[in-house]
């Protein structure tokens, strides 16, 4: 899969409280959550972000709570993927589970700025910055995680298993 | 090659003789938990599978605690979804008035036992590691899958062993130990790893303090924190359950990613300043920080021993006129005990608020939301931007002794500064 989009750049330790503050956790409606995405780090973000954009951030992206509302809000805002130096583990799982591509590309971060257009090649494991023409390596997913991605998310993968189990009786 | 206690638990749950860090396993789960914020999503995902029943209703737990008693109509709708599903499934369900904060309630009810694998749709599920089990937080979709299958996938994490040596000074507790540790290694210092807490200081440390430490393992990016099993664990559990369990211990030749030793004999009561739990300073070095609010409670420090520490300091003293002091017991059981012991009277006489058990203020839900520019000393576990209210408010993390002393003096203070 090749994902091309415009970058919004953030720093280290972007936590789930700033991605989607708890005051909005009274709903699971993705569109409603999207209206407040990144609100406590950049109150204008929800109105600036365009479908197809990509979030680029530093270390430990998504640290904090287990709220899946965080990747859901990002995805529902139209963000195609998140590229970071590293991810907090619960956020990483949640994103994979709901089909939001999350890519670790430690070397790409420092030289990428807001407004750059980047191209993520998930198969090749690369990130290209079209402004500088530089290509960076990204971490490859394990086979197990790739299966979830291929199924379209965790529940799709589980549904296949449940069906197989029922057919086996 | 030996195994760590975490590797042993995961091997057992995957019906394997041995496992290695990095491997991905499918493990059987002993308990699956969600709360009023995460359950509605889990339930929606679960329903998509078209299954009638969760894998085992007696291993699925629902705890309303974040926004209950319902703070508004939307919160009421969310808990209603959970309540109806839980009751229809015959799952374990803790209604308000009989329960409290999930991570206080589950251990109190003997649901977190040594050797078990426990997953919860709440990042502080790692709290149960204090009981020598593997417990970790996940998102709602992972929990939905586990509710259906009775299993989950985990990558066997590497373990970092922390060894605490020396003797713990007065007014220094588990919260200070974990804040110190996070201050040393940073908020991603244990990313993807397990923090195994050991050493002579830990051997002597009361269960409530161990629980506070395990609770904040996630604040160092860890998958979980874990403690060995000893007489203290056994005694604690004997009061709440007669179910059998199988403790695990790390082998002497177990592999560790790292071994970190701290001599804590000179530790002073600590605080973590905004906006990261790793931003740690001794409380008595911060004399110029006036505060507006103090919160004593949460899954970190809302247990009886925490309230006893706070009461000892507040007894015969008054909360500073400028400060709102909000005390939130971790569970109904804690509230009852605190009432019996006269702690509640002490709080009320000191001019504090004593609430029913809830997560409320900890995540800026209700019962103590901060206005722009306000500063709060809190015994909770996160001081991220906007955590307790306005994005320009500040949360300073501390243990119950520092929080109570700060409430009296109206500024960040250590208990020793009261005299
Ligand atoms: S008390 Fe705070 S940290 Fe603990 S479960 Fe509730 S919201 Fe989460």
Question: Could you characterize what this model shows?
Answer:
Chain A is α/β, with parallel strands linked by helices and 169 residues long. A seven-stranded mixed β-sheet of chain A has the order 4-3-2-1-5-6-7. In chain A, helix 4 links the parallel strand 2 and strand 3. Chain A is globular and about 55 Å long. The model of chain A has no long low-confidence stretch (mean pLDDT 94). Chain B is an alpha/beta fold and 419 residues long. In chain B, a hairpin with a 7-residue loop joins strand 12 and strand 13. The N and C termini of chain B lie far apart (54 Å). Helix content of chain B is 31%, strand content 18%. In chain B, helix 6 runs parallel beside helix 8. Chain B has a seven-stranded mixed β-sheet with strand order 13-12-18-17-14-15-16, sandwiched between helices. Chain B is globular. The model of chain B has no long low-confidence stretch (mean pLDDT 97). Chains A and B meet through helix 5 and helix 7 of A and helix 2, helix 3 and helix 5 of B. The structure holds iron/sulfur cluster.
Could you give a short description of this structure?
The complex is a heterodimer of chains A (169) and B (419). With 169 residues, chain A is an alpha/beta fold. In chain A, 33% of the residues lie in helices and 18% in strands.
Q: How would you summarize the topology of this molecule?
A:
The complex is a heterodimer of chains A (169) and B (419).
Chain A lengths: L1 E8 L6 H4 L10 H5 L10 H4 L5 E4 L11 H8 L4 E4 L4 H10 L3 E3 L12 E5 L4 E4 L5 E3 L5 H9 L2 H15 L1
Chain B lengths: L4 H9 L10 E5 L2 E5 L3 H10 L11 E4 L9 H17 L2 E2 L8 H7 L8 E4 L13 E4 L2 H10 L1 E5 L3 E7 L8 H12 L8 E5 L1 H5 L2 H9 L8 E4 L3 H8 L19 E6 L6 E3 L7 E3 L10 E4 L1 H4 L2 H11 L9 E4 L4 H9 L2 H8 L2 E2 L20 E4 L15 E5 L1 H10 L10
Parallel strand pairs in B: 2-3, 2-5, 3-4, 5-6, 8-9, 8-11, 9-10, 14-15, 14-17, 15-16, 17-18
Antiparallel strand pairs in B: 1-7, 12-13, 12-18
Bound molecules: iron/sulfur cluster.
């Amino acid at each position: 899969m090749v994902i091309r989009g415009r970058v919004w750049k953030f720093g280290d330790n972007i936590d789930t409280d700033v991605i989607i503050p708890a005051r909005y956790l009274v709903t699971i409606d993705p569109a409603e959550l999207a209206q407040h995405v990144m609100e406590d780090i950049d109150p204008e973000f929800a109105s600036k972000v365009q479908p197809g954009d990509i979030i680029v951030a530093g270390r430990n992206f998504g640290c904090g709570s287990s709220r899946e509302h965080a990747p859901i809000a990002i995805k529902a805002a139209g963000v195609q993927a998140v590229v970071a130096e590293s991810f907090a583990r619960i956020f990483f799982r949640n994103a994979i589970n709901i089909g939001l591509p999350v890519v670790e590309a430690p070397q790409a971060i420092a030289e990428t700025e807001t407004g750059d257009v980047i191209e993520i090649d998930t198969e090749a494991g690369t990130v290209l910055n079209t402004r500088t023409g530089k290509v960076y390596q990204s971490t490859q997913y394990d086979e197990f995680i790739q299966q979830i991605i291929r199924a379209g998310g965790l529940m799709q993968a589980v549904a296949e298993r449940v069906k197989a189990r029922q057919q086996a009786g | 090659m030996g195994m760590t206690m975490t590797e042993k638990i995961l091997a057992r749950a995957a019906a394997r003789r041995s496992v290695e860090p990095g491997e991905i396993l499918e493990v059987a789960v002993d308990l699956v938990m969600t709360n009023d914020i995460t359950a509605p999503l889990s339930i929606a995902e679960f329903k998509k599978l078209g299954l009638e029943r969760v894998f085992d209703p007696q291993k699925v737990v629902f705890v309303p605690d974040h926004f209950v008693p319902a703070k508004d109509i939307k919160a009421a709708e969310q808990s209603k979804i959970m309540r109806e599903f839980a009751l229809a499934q015959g799952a374990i369900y803790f209604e308000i008035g009989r329960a409290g904060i999930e991570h206080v309630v589950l251990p109190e009810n003997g649901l977190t036992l040594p050797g078990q694998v426990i997953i919860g749709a709440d990042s502080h599920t790692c709290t149960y590691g204090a009981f020598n089990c593997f417990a970790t937080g996940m998102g709602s979709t992972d929990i939905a899958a586990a509710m259906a299958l009775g299993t989950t996938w985990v990558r066997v994490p590497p373990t970092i062993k922390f060894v605490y040596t020396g003797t713990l000074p007065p007014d220094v507790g588990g919260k200070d130990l974990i804040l110190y540790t996070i201050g040393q290694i940073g908020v991603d210092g244990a990313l993807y790893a397990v923090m195994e807490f050991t050493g002579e200081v830990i051997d002597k440390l009361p269960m409530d303090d161990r629980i506070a430490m395990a609770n904040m393992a996630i604040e160092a990016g860890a998958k979980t924190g874990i403690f060995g099993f000893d007489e203290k664990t056994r005694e604690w559990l004997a009061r709440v359950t007669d179910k059998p369990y199988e403790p695990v211990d790390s082998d002497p030749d177990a592999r560790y990613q790292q071994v970190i030793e701290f001599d804590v004999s000179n530790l002073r009561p600590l605080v973590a300043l905004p906006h990261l739990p790793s931003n740690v300073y001794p409380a008595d070095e911060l004399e110029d920080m006036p505060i507006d609010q103090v919160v004593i409670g949460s899954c970190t420090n809302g247990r009886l021993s925490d309230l006893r520490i706070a009461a000892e300091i507040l007894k015969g003293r008054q909360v500073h006129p400028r400060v709102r002091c909000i005390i939130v017991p971790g569970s109904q059981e804690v509230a009852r005990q605190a009432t019996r012991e006269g702690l509640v009277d002490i709080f009320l006489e000191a001019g504090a608020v004593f609430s029913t058990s809830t997560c409320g203020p900890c995540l800026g839900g209700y019962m103590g939301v901060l206005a722009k520019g306000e500063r709060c000393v809190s015994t909770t576990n996160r001081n991220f931007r906007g955590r307790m209210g306005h994005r320009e408010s500040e949360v300073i993390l501390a243990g119950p002794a520092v929080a109570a002393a700060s409430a009296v003096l109206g500024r960040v203070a250590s208990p020793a500064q009261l005299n």
